[in-house]
Design brief:
This protein is mainly α. 87% of the residues lie in helices and 0% in strands. The N and C termini lie far apart (34 Å).
Amino acid sequence: MIVFGGVFIWIHLIQQSVDNMNYGAIGIVQALGLLLGPLIAAIVITKRASLAAGVFAGVAVGFCVYVVTATVGIGIHGE
């Protein structure tokens, strides 16, 4: 359940960030960060622990990337 929930959240956030591509570079950075960051974190943690732990780490990294890029986007564009 953790794995499928994590993958669903990851896909949903990528879809949301792709919808915000009209903001230019910050949208591209957000989409790439959400695409690669959680995947890399999940692979690194999965090698050392279990798949569920890797997905949990990927969701945590994805959330952090999303919050940081959204905060920067709000600071730049005011939305």
